[in-house]
From TrEMBL:
Pfam annotation, one family: DUF2630
Organism domain of life: Bacteria
Span list, region Disordered: 58-81
The protein's name: DUF2630 family protein
Length: 81
């Protein structure tokens, strides 16, 4: 996945987060469903941001950004920028 694909995926997930919050506030889904899906999205977003940071770091140091790998959610969860 290249940088533009990663950014596109991040944008799509952020939009999905917004839609979930709207769905729960309008009563279309319950808060338990929202929280479960938001948790999944947050983990996937953490992985995407980590992959993007890896790619940028590899580029900055003259390495091949395509060698960056998605790390397990358990490893990247809660990273702070």
């Amino acid at each position: 996945m290249d940088q533009d694909q990663i950014l596109g995926r991040i944008s799509a997930m952020v939009e999905e987060e917004r839609a979930l919050r709207e769905a729960v506030s309008s009563g279309r889904i319950d808060s338990a469903t929202e929280q479960e899906r938001l948790g999944d999205l947050e983990r996937a977003l953490d992985q995407c941001w980590d992959l993007l940071r890896q790619r940028r770091a590899k580029t900055e140091f003259g390495e091949n950004p395509d060698e960056a790998q998605v790390r397990p959610a358990s490893q990247v969860e809660g990273y702070e920028s």
